[in-house]
Hints:
The chain has helices at 11-28, 70-73, 93-103, and strands at 35-42, 56-63, 107-113, 117-125. With 146 residues, the chain is an alpha+beta fold. The chain is globular, with a radius of gyration of 17 Å.
Amino acid sequence: xxxxxxxxxxxxxxxxxxxxxxxxxxxxxxxxxxxxxxxxxxxxxxxxxxxxxxxxxxxxxxxxxxxxxxxxxxxxxxxxxxxxxxxxxxxxxxxxxxxxxxxxxxxxxxxxxxxxxxxxxxxxxxxxxxxxxxxxxxxxxxxxxx
Length: 146
């Protein structure tokens, strides 16, 4: 993709996603650290597998904090699950993020290793461009007038 990455959404849900991911990253790095947000266009996931017929806007939020073990990583999107002390969090932030992304027909992946940090990768379908096949070849789409 060489054009702008446009997705069909309102600003508020995207802000909510980024705020939840960044505040969780910040809270996990009590001794300080870095948070990086990046965007790109892709038709493949983190493992280089095709995502389907469309290209996606990919938003990546990474930190160099303590990371998570598999047991925690497997539960992070569950409502009310939290690793924070009582009174420090509701356990709803990541379940809300997951719900917003699902409603936008997207997906989210998490990669985390103890001592190496965490990366959330969000895939949102691009809006207003022709669909592509798995190899990225343009396919005709039907407009409402057709």
